[in-house]
Each structure stands twice: as C-alpha cells, then as structure tokens.
Design goal:
776 residues; alpha+beta; Beta-galactosidase, Chain A, domain 5; Glycosyltransferase; eleven-stranded antiparallel beta sheet; 20 helices; 32 strands; 32% helix; Gal_mutarotase_sf_dom
Length: 776
C-alpha cells in the first residue's frame, strides 16, 4: 500500500520559522515518478552533481553522479562526447528481520522526503510496516559538500518499533553504472583498506581519465560506537561490504554514517589514486563535514545572493530554488568547464553546454559574482581552437562556436539523429549542430555584457577582445552576397521549429551587432593599445578583416517591421499556414504538437517553439520602439508554444517592459513551475538550466527592472501587484548595490567606496559611496 495525495505531490510550505520558504517536500512515494524528484532534489557543488535516488533501488530509478568536465566518447560512428555516469556510492540495501526494505512492499505508514535549500541537504523520513508486520522508523539524510568538493555524506537512523531488530546492511560502490546502456569506463583496481575504506578505480575508455572512488562506514547504537562484523564482496566494477551488527533492541536507534569521495585525474591537484586515498582517509565524520558544508552555503551563497520577496511565499521559495541549482551546477572551481543544459542533474543533452550559459545563466553571475562569470567566459576563450576547426571544416574563417560544447578542443558535439518522426517512423535529423549558428554572436554578446557590468580590462586584454574579433571574422566569412546586400541563408534561429530558413531576424541582427562591436573595439585599440591590436591582428588578419567588417556590416540585410510593425522572423514565416494552436498551448505535455505533425509539416506553419523575435527585442531592446515591441508580442506570442523551458522567462520580462504586470507575473509563475511545479514528469532527464537562470532574470531584470544599455546602468522596476517588497544585490563596475523596492519607495544602498551613477526611472542619479539613496 502506498500513501498518495493525488492533488499535490510536492508541498512548498513545510518549512517554518527560520526554514520558512526554504523547503520542498515530496509527500508520498510513487515508483512511477522517481525521475522528477531525483533531478529536482539533486545535490551538487559544481564539481559533482548527484541525482537524489533513494538508498534502496527501484525498477524505474535513474541513479546518477556526474563529475564536471570528465567527458568521454563511446566508440562508434553515431556516438558523441558525453558526461559519463560515474560509480554510484549512495546505494545501501537493508534487511530488517529477514525483510528487504522496499517501499513497494509492505505498507507505508508515513513518508516525506525534503530538500532543504538553506542547508543543501536531502532528508527522508519513513514509517514502514514490513510484509512480516513489523514496524520501523527510518530517517535518511545526505548532502554533497560545498566545503569539500569531493565528498558525499550520508546518515541513516533505524529504529525498530515492534520488536528487536536483526539488521543486515549491504553497502559499497557500484561501478556498473551506464549512460542509458553505454558503459564509459574500463575496470580498475578494487580494494579494501584496513577493513574500513573501500576503493574502486575506473578509467574512461576514450578520454583516459582516472577516477578513484572511496567509501567508509561508521555505526553508533544509542550514541555508542559499535563495530559490526563484516564481509567484503567484489564483483565486476563493484565492491560492497555486508555489515551485521548485534541485535538492536526495540525502540533503540542504530545510526549508520557513510562517507564517500570521488577524485579524478582532471583535478588540478591530482597526483594518483594513492594520494587521493590519503586525502580521503583524513576526511572527518558526518557532523564535522556538515558543519563546514552548512557554513559554506551560508557565507558563499546565501549571504552573497540575498534575494528577498515579500508577498507570495512560493515566489520566495522559487528564487531560492533557482539560486540553489545555479550554485550546484556551475563548475566555479575550473575555467576548463562550463554549464550543461541539464546542469549536473541528469543525462539530458549529454552534459553539453549551449547558448543557455551565455544568454540565460551568465547574467546571474555577471551581476552577482563576476569572478565566476569570468571563468565561464574563459572557457569559451580556451575553446577557440575547437571553434576555429569547426569554421574551417565548414569552409569559413574565424571562430565558429559549436552549438553543443564539451571538451575545449572538441568543436561540435551535437548528435546528428534524434527522436522518431511521427509520420515516417525514421530518426529525425538534428540540424542545430550544422546550421544553428547564432551562438557565435551570443557568446560575443555575453563577453560585451560582462565587460560593461564589470569594467574588467584584464579579461578583455587576455580574452575578450580576441573573442569579439574572432567571432566577427567568422560572420564576415559567413555572409552571402546577393545583389547589393549581404544575407545569411539556410540557418536555424532560436525557433528550432523552423529549419533551413533565410535571414532569420535574430541571427542577422546579432551578427550585425557582432560586426559593429568588432569595428568599435578595433578603433578603440588602435588609439589606446596598438601593441595588443598588432598582436591580435597578426593572429586574425584584422587589417584585412576590418575593411570587410565595415563593408559587409553596412550592407547586411536586417528585416524591418512591416506595415503592421511586425518584424518577419525569416523570409517566409509570415506567408506560412496558420492553424489553431489552442489545444497544444493548453497541453500539459511539452511537444504535444508532434503527436499530430512531423517537423517538416511544422516547418510550413506559423508556429514558433520559443522566443525568437521576442528575445531579439529583449537583448537589443534599445534598437526597437515600444510600438514595435507591442506589435510583435501581439503577433508572435499567440503562435508560440513555449515548448522550450527558456521561453516564458523571456516573455515575462518583455511583458513587464510593455506594462502588462498581470501577464508578466503569469508568465513568471509558469516559468518557475517548470521544474518546481506539480508536473511529475517534467524533469526526468534533469533540471532546465536556462529556465533556472531565466527565473533570476525575471526577478532582477524584469520585476527589478535592471538593464544595461549602451554601457550604462538603468533601473526601472515593475513590481508585481502581489508582491509588497523585493530586495536583491547587483554588482556594477566593482561596486555592490543593494536594491530594496516596494510599490511606494525605492532604496538603493551603495556598499562600495566609490560613487555610482545610473538612470533610475528615467532620471540620472548618483549614489554616493557607503550611502543609501531613497526615493518615494
């Protein structure tokens, strides 16, 4: 028997006092919907991401532990580089008086599983009646340490309620994990040290990365340390120990601690597995680890990003949920790594980085933690060789960044084939890796945005100018001459339901922006740093390219608003067939359209997957009038299915700009529930990184009204009617500003030692150093 509440699987109000709006609780156990909670409740620290599968195993679970930057490619023509699923160290099997603890057997008298965002811990409380009619209380807790990036800590407390307990625990390290059937590891050494520490070594098959996994256990009975008898088992890619403590009396509690660690040869301080063992052996107990972990979250996360929302409890929880996952999925420790489209919470998109990082996630770090933002952009700088190779392979010049990225030197790693075509039954070809090229301009845009917010000249000289120039070299080689103008034909824009289109507005405008910025900074360096310009010119032939930029940028076709002020999404979109999208917009299933049509058919309809022209109006907002923005909203939003998780956040921000507070808030609500909401199948393959970043953008850039236009800071809040107060910090040119916004007042505190100038609600103001500015 399973406890179920069909109305609400997740509860958002279980936290009280200091934990109010800090907890999400799963209220019943459902073996059919394990993936949702495994991903949404996943634990991470940027080095590793651990799906929150239960200690005991179930048929439909997807266990996963992903170590950032450890990509491997399985041998085969149809395979691409992916982030391998490392050995599972969380599995624990309990036999209680002869009955195996399984929630699909016996009866669940109580169940709750809670993610505590404040402490970044997962806890589970179960009152279980076994098939033998014995009752037990089991409490599970775990965390992935933010203070020690290698460590997973687990604690299990078991109390027999009906009679004395004979316990058998089977626990260890399981290296038999795969990526949906693909095994990425060669078998390595298995060993038990001093009857305490289990070790499993593994080695990736193609990328030659060494992994060293360790686990150890400790037992206490009613606060007294005990040493159960144990037996070690080794199997192929697997090492486990069976522990059998003495009889546990009724109502006494036995507590089991399991401390595990993973180390790889990608670690900058890696020497070998023996050194890793020595480091792991010095790891303290659960309570000491938790104390350091909790302090790290408090000081480096919650004090760094103190966003407060008054008025709607769920919204406060949602922004904390976003910051929690932004922290857990970002490899802040290493600039050779980037953020996957599913973070580190699942196999979705194979751990690859997309434009999601630069356009949706990076703005959070650019304005909240510039050091991390810089490292994420340095990844793109370090991956220029792979982008150059992609350009060369496609007969272009400069740096053509891949749609999907993994290794720095990989170049393009987008799979060629995808889901089945509903009409033909054949696999659908994925064209993004070939012709979704706007990402090259997206990266250039992120570089410029970072520079404008931070003034980081050192970054520009070491990385930024080269990125702007190398991407512009690509665009000038990509443009096609047609009569007296240049065009960009045969692409996929942000709307991936339109393939092989000509003159996608977003792509053309962003390419033009990229060329203009390259011209601007070439002129600037000519005056201010001719030595650096000479060095970059020698590498990228900038003298010749500069003339091409000027000539081609001036003649690049930019689709203009028509008589109805609508910007054509591409050359043919406005002439395509229009159908009633109501059933598909209201469907709970993403991609419901493809139950009735295939992609070729959708390609001939006025149907948009996600923000396309809309995101152009957001990123380059000062190039379009309010009337043009409204006309394009009115035309395109009804035709947009929001089948991409990143779409509604963009629309919410634009709705704020257009003065429709109710619509902006409605879009925000839907965006914030993509992962956090009650749809228990929404996140099986992992959380949606772009959507998570988009939630923050809605709060700060939309409702908070923070924008950077032409290198200046603007603040024009649009507080939702349901909110009474919003507080958040931002960095501008090295100064930290704390914003407090209500319906009647705006208070801005400058905590830095220099004055800050910006435009507030259309008025230029100066907030003096170490002072507070207030307006009514």
């Amino acid at each position: 028997m399973l406890l179920k509440n069909q109305h609400q699987a997740l509860k958002y109000d279980t936290g009280s006092g200091e934990l109010k709006n800090w907890q999400i609780t799963e209220t019943y156990f459902d073996p059919e919907t394990l993936g949702k909670v495994e991903a949404v409740f996943s634990l991470g620290n940027g080095y590793m991401g651990l799906r929150s599968a239960t200690e005991e195993r179930y048929a439909r679970e997807v266990r996963g532990n992903f170590i950032a930057g450890t990509f491997n490619k399985f041998l085969g023509d149809k395979e691409v580089t992916e982030l391998p699923n490392a050995a599972d160290m969380t599995e624990m099997s309990f036999t209680l008086n002869g009955d195996t603890f399984q929630l699909t057997d016996g009866e669940i008298l109580h169940f709750d599983r809670t993610l505590n965002l404040k402490d970044a811990t997962l806890s589970r409380t179960v009152h279980w009646r076994s098939p033998s009619d014995d009752e037990y209380k089991l409490i599970f807790t775990r965390f992935v340490s933010l203070a020690n990036k290698h460590i997973i800590a687990q604690k299990v407390a078991i109390t027999p309620l009906s009679r004395n307990l004979t316990l058998k625990l089977h626990s260890g390290i399981n290296g038999q994990m795969t990526n949906t059937g693909t095994q990425h590891f060669k078998e390595g050494v298995l060993r038990l040290y001093d009857q305490k520490i289990m070790k499993l070594e593994a080695h990736t098959t193609e990328s030659n990365i060494d992994f060293a996994h360790f686990s150890r256990h400790a037992f206490t009975l009613e606060n007294s340390v005990i040493t159960p008898k144990n037996t070690i088992f080794m199997d192929r890619r697997k090492i486990f120990t069976t522990f059998e403590p003495e009889t546990i009396q009724q109502n006494e509690t036995i507590t089991i601690e399991k401390i595990s660690g993973v180390y790889t040869s990608r670690d900058k301080d890696w020497k070998d597995a023996d050194q890793a063992l020595a480091i792991f052996a010095m790891t303290p107990n659960y309570d000491s680890l938790f104390k350091a972990h909790r302090k790290a979250w408090q000081t480096t996360v919650w004090e760094q990003y103190p966003i407060q929302i008054e008025g709607v409890d769920f919204d406060q929880l949602a922004i904390r949920f976003a910051i929690y996952h932004l922290t857990g999925m970002t490899p802040a420790h290493d600039n050779r790594m980037n953020i996957g489209a599913k973070g580190l919470s699942g196999e979705g998109y194979k751990g690859h980085a997309f434009w999601d990082t630069e356009i949706f996630v990076l703005p959070f770090f650019t304005t909240s933690n510039p050091k991390i933002a810089r490292q994420l952009l340095e990844y793109r700088s370090l991956s220029i060789p792979g982008a150059v190779r992609k350009a060369r392979d496609n007969n272009y010049e400069g740096a053509m960044f891949p749609w999907e990225s993994a290794w720095l030197e990989d170049g393009e790693v987008t799979p060629v084939w995808g889901a089945a075509d509903i009409i033909t039954g054949e696999p659908t070809k994925i064209w993004s890796g070939f012709i979704e090229q706007h990402i090259t301009a997206d990266i250039a845009f992120a570089v410029w945005q970072y520079y404008q917010f931070t003034g980081d000249q050192d970054f520009m000289e070491k990385h930024g100018y080269e990125l702007l120039f190398a991407t512009a070299v690509f665009w000038q080689s990509r443009l096609e001459k047609k009569d007296d103008r240049y065009e960009i034909t045969g692409v996929v824009g942000p709307d991936e339901y339109k393939e092989h289109v000509d003159n996608n507005a977003f792509t053309n405008y962003m390419a033009h922006w990229n060329l203009e910025k390259a011209i601007q900074y070439y002129d600037l360096l000519q005056q201010e740093n001719p030595e650096l310009l000479a060095s970059l010119s020698a590498k990228w032939d900038l003298q010749s390219n500069y003339q091409k930029w000027r000539e081609k940028a001036a003649k690049l076709y930019l689709p203009q608003p028509n008589a109805a002020l609508v910007i054509p999404q591409d050359d043919t979109y406005l002439s395509k067939k229009i159908i009633d999208l109501t059933p598909y917009k209201e469907a709970s299933q993403v991609g419901a359209l493809f139950l009735d049509y295939n992609l070729d058919q959708v390609n001939d309809m006025q149907i948009t997957k996600q923000a396309d022209v809309m995101i152009l109006l957001y990123l380059l907002e000062n190039e379009f009038s309010p009337d043009v923005k409204q006309a394009n909203w009115d035309y395109y939003e009804p035709k947009t299915l929001h089948d991409s998780s990143l779409s509604r956040a963009t629309h919410s921000i634009l709705a704020s700009d257009l003065g429709d507070k109710d619509l902006a808030y409605s879009m925000f609500e839907k965006a914030s529930r993509i992962d956090l909401g009650q749809n228990m199948k929404s996140s099986d393959a992992g959380i949606h990184s772009a959507s998570i970043g988009g939630i923050w953008q809605v709060v700060v850039n939309g409702f908070g009204g923070v924008r950077m236009l032409d290198g200046r800071l603007y603040v024009h809040p649009h507080l939702p009617e349901k909110w009474t107060e919003l507080q958040f910090p931002i960095y501008w040119k090295g100064a930290r500003l704390h914003m407090k916004i209500t319906h009647d007042m705006i208070e801005i505190t400058n905590t830095s030692n220099k004055d800050v100038e910006f435009v507030l609600n259309g008025t230029e103001i100066v907030v003096l150093a170490d002072s507070t500015f207030t307006t009514n």
